[in-house]
Structures are given as structure tokens and as C-alpha cells.
Amino acid sequence: GQNIDQPTEMTATEGAIVQINCTYQTSGFNGLFWYQQHAGEAPTFLSYNVLDGLEEKGRFSSFLSRSKGYSYLLLKELQMKDSASYLCAVGRSGAGSYQLTFGKGTKLSVIP
Amino acid sequence: EPEVTQTPSHQVTQMGQEVILRCVPISNHLYFYWYRQILGQKVEFLVSFYNNEISEKSEIFDDQFSVERPDGSNFTLKIRSTKLEDSAMYFCASSAGDGTEAFFGQGTRLTVV
Question: Where does A2-90 have alpha helices with state H?
Fold first, then answer.
């Protein structure tokens, strides 16, 4: 089966750095995705890791350790607009199909 | 920038009625998906579609659900006889290949009364 765990809520200060962790157990692993979702809106793609290590993309970085079933999303120089839910999603493929399994999301509140 | 578009943005329907949710995926994408998100809950996979057929479906996607790609651009989700618990935001998504990021449409908020 699939199991994805991430903290429910986090609070951080504008200008600071925050790390959102995600652990997963899955079969047929084919990539770890992070999405941002503002309330009432669609998820928007942030990052993708398929190999171990750190991927950097502007203010956002994502790390993956496949052996530990662990990923984190690092947000630097936090801005008020970064207040949103951050969804960890595991890509799973098999028998010609592909799907994303999402965690419950971490609601990040950025305060002045 | 190419985007996935969904119509309608909001649909209210009576229990037992049929609804069709419409999606236009990004034109050169090959994989299409439907997800749903019940208010306050996580995004849940419903179905994936590739090469004009369903490639995988979840337990949620029972006989009341069906998908079609009636022409070269549209991708639809039909719920044959809606139930109260079908009330949710339904997201269509598409990707260029497996293992690549999925782009989500803005969603259709379905309310069953």
C-alpha cells in the first residue's frame, strides 16, 4: 500500500527558512513531487526528485533519500504569499500506468 | 503558457442526476488524469488514461464513474448517478509522459444536493 506522512501545520516568519518533511512507503516508486496549493485552488508543481540528492530551483529546494523514504522541501526568504498548503506526492508506475499519491499536505502560515 | 482548462468551474446537481465534467488537457500531453479533493481532505487519485484507454483506476472509481476522450482535445468524467458524498473539487491533470510533472486544471467544484 501507499503511506505518505507530512506535518499537518507549520508556522514561520517572513524572511526566514522553513523545511517541510515528508516520509513515504510505497511500491513502484517513480519520483517524488512537491506541489503548492492555495486554498480553493489547484495544486501547482514546485519540484521533482527521482534520484537521491538536492534539487534547487530559486527560493525552493527539494531533497530525496530513496533508501530512507524521505524527502524535504526547503523554502528560503519566506514571503507572505508562500502561505499555502504544500503537498508531497509520490509517483508510482506499473503495468503501463502512472499515478500520483498525495499526502494530506502541510499548511504553512507565514507571519510578519 | 499552455494550461489545462476545466468546465464548468462550479456545478450544483441533485442527488441521482448524471453530471459530466469537462477538461481540455495540454495539447501535446499523452497522459490524462482525474483527481478529487473533498473539502479539507487530501487530493485523491481517481483514474489515469493513456492511449485511449484507462490505464489505472482507484477504488473510488466504481461503476458510477466513466471517462471518455470523445475527440482529440476533450477529456470527460461522467458520474452516472450522483451521491451526496460525491461533492468535492474534481481536478483534471495531464502530463507529457510518466514520471513527469502533472499539470492541474483549476478544478470543478461539484455540489450534490
Answer: none
